[in-house]
Structures are given as structure tokens and as C-alpha cells.
Design goal:
Layout: H1 8-22, H2 26-38, H3 41-44, H4 47-70, H5 82-94, H6 103-122, H7 126-162, H8 166-178, H9 185-192, E1 199-207, H10 215-227, E2 234-239, E3 242-247, H11 258-261, E4 267-271, E5 275-276, H12 277-297, E6 304-306, H13 307-316, H14 320-331, H15 339-350, H16 355-362, H17 366-379, H18 388-400
Parallel strand pairs: 4-6
Antiparallel strand pairs: 1-3, 1-4, 1-5, 2-3
Helix pairs in contact: 1-4, 1-6, 1-7, 2-4, 2-6, 4-5, 5-7, 6-7, 12-13, 13-18, 14-18, 15-16, 15-17, 15-18, 16-17
Length: 416
Amino acid sequence: MTGTAPSPRVKDLIRRCAQVVVNARPEWLDELDHAVLAASPSIAADPELAAAVSRSNRANLFFWGAANIRDPGAPVPPNTGPEPLTIARELVRRGIDAFALDAYRVGEGVAWRRLLEIAFEVSSDPAELHELLDVCSRSISAFVDATLAGIAAQIDLERDELTRGTHAERRETVALLLDGAPIPRQRAEARLGYALTGLHTAAVIWSEEPDADLSGLDRAAEAFGRACHDPRPLSVVAGSGTRWVWAAGAADALAALAAPAREWRGVRIAVGPAADGLDGFRRSHFDAITTQQMMARLHSAQQIGRFADIELVALITAEPDRAAEFVSRQLGALEFADDELLETVRVFVNEQCNASRAAARLYLHRNTLLRRLARADELLPRPLADNSVAVAVALDVLRWHGTRPAAPDQSNAASR
């Protein structure tokens, strides 16, 4: 950035603006993330990459703000810290074109609009505002240019490193298979070391945490293979925090994953259905991706998700606002009940409304179960017996949702 240094008064104003920036309100950060991700659907659809972009947005805001607190109006060097460089690595490993970085220009526009609001809060003098906004405009533009140039240079380095290893061949082969390219099966199998005939079950294993122990991803991939009775599953590095995995067989021992999975901090697993042949290889993977995306979209607390369990929920929650309306309409005050009551109703419906079977599954006395069901009927807009299917679907949406709304009136909240 060139130009004369700002006046002492404007330096003070810049510092005051920067102090607001480094303590940005959560709603500002959410707006920034939403704008950047909306401008790049390929990034938004990938939970790991979307989380990395969110961290990078915050890091860049803080970097620029902190620099202008130290030395208001001085040139801000590019942010070459871990967050933006992670973006470079992940874009290359996913084969996403560098033009996805244009989304950051959208973020620059959002940040600039917020800075305008802040500037008009700290001064109403036209001359001061003119100088303040001129300095900040040039500063932000130069900072973003330099940071994006640094990311682009890192992309070139990552691409060069990636194309020298066997990972590139396996990743490229899988991409061709998923795209339906006419690659000979025998050649693909030789490259992958994995037979494409027979039954396949795919999984996406990932972590959204920046400091997660990534060895947990590989241990989870091996455990998933054992759950499918395949000692040598195919595992492809889709990103530093994501593995695409295929196992030859059905995941009939998937429940055995639950206990060890708790030891893999931050690791999550989305599993597709077992399917046959090369078409099954593709279909199971795409269904695992759908499961991963739904878990991320709902901020689900569940660590392991199967497509067979979430297919209907994924369809319903594709439009979050309408899904929320559906849940509220079907459950009424039951939406705000405690987890124990919700689980009782869910199990009862899943057991075809058979009280004896539901009580046995929940380890409850039958009379206790009936009392809880009576309480649920008091909270539901319609009797459970008249609307059990819709209630079951709404409860499944709640089960997979990571956050639940607070009751509008605590007097309506349900108790046991």
C-alpha cells in the first residue's frame, strides 16, 4: 500500500475501528461465513473445507485488525499463518480450482460494509471519515491481494508435491470411477489395489477440528474395514482431515465401532449402504457423502451416521426452515420435552406402537411407559395414535439435529 501516513487523529480512529474488528460480534462472523460459502457451493458442500474457510475468515479479520491496533494505517503483511495455508492444501487435495478463491472477494465486500458502519460510529466529521475510509479501503484491498497471492503460491507448491506421490494416482483413479469415466476395470483395480467386483460399503471419515489427532482417521478406516469383514479396505486421502473409504462387504458389525469411536477425538463417520459392483462402488460413496453433508448441516452430535437411518431426514432437512416448521407443527409442545420422553415416544413408534416390546427395549415397567406416553399425548397437537408416522419423522429430525430451540414459554416445557 502506498500513500502518505494518516494524520494522528485518523490513526486513533483506525485503531478504534480495529479494536471493534478483533472483537467482532458472532452475527458478523456468521454473515461473513455465509457470504463466502454461498459464493462457492463446492466449498460449502464439504464440511471439513467449510470449517477451514470459517477459521480462515476469522484469522484474516483478526490479523488485519491486530496489525492496525499495533500500527494504524501501516501496510499489513499477508497472512501466511496455518489457516489460509490449510485452504491451499485442501483445495488441491480435492481437485478444486483456485478460482474458488474468488469467494474471498465476496468476504472482503462483507467486511468492508461492516467497517463502514464502524467508521460512522467513531466519527461524524466528513474530512476525518474521508481520510479514514480511504486509508482503510487501500489497506484491506492490499492485504487481501497479498494473502490470496500467498495462498495461490502455496497451491502451486501443494499441487507439485501431490502429483509426485502415489496418492495422486489413487485419488485420480477414484475420481475417474466416480465420474463414470471409461477406465478399464483391471487398470483401475491395479492402481487401487482393490477389487471393484462384488459388494462394497463406502464411508466418509472426517474431522472438522483443526488440531485433531489425524491418526484417528486411519484407525477409524481400519476399524470400519473390520466391521465389514475386510482386512484391507481402500482408503483415499480426500483432504488432510477426510478419508474416503471402501470395504468389500456389508457393514453388519457397525455397532462394534461405537465404543472405539469415542476414543478418536473429533472423528466422525458417515456410512453408505452396501451395493454391488462398480455402480455400487459409486452409489454407496455418494450416499455416504449425503449422510456426511446432512450431519454437518444439522450440526449433529451423532458420531456415526448411516444412510439407511438418515435418508428421510436428509430429504426433509434439505430446506431447514421448512423442516423446522414441520417439526413444530407435528410435535407442538413435545418438541421441548426432555430427551427421556422423546426417546420413549421414538422407540414406541419404532416398535409399531407395541407397548410391551417398547418397554422391554427401554428396560422400563410397562406402566411407566404408558404414563410417559400419556404425558406425550398431552403435549402433542394430535393424539399419537392418529399421527404416529409424522411424529416419528419429526422425532428423527430432532434426534439428528445438533441444537434444539428453547421453549418459547418455560411453563410449556415438558417434564418427565
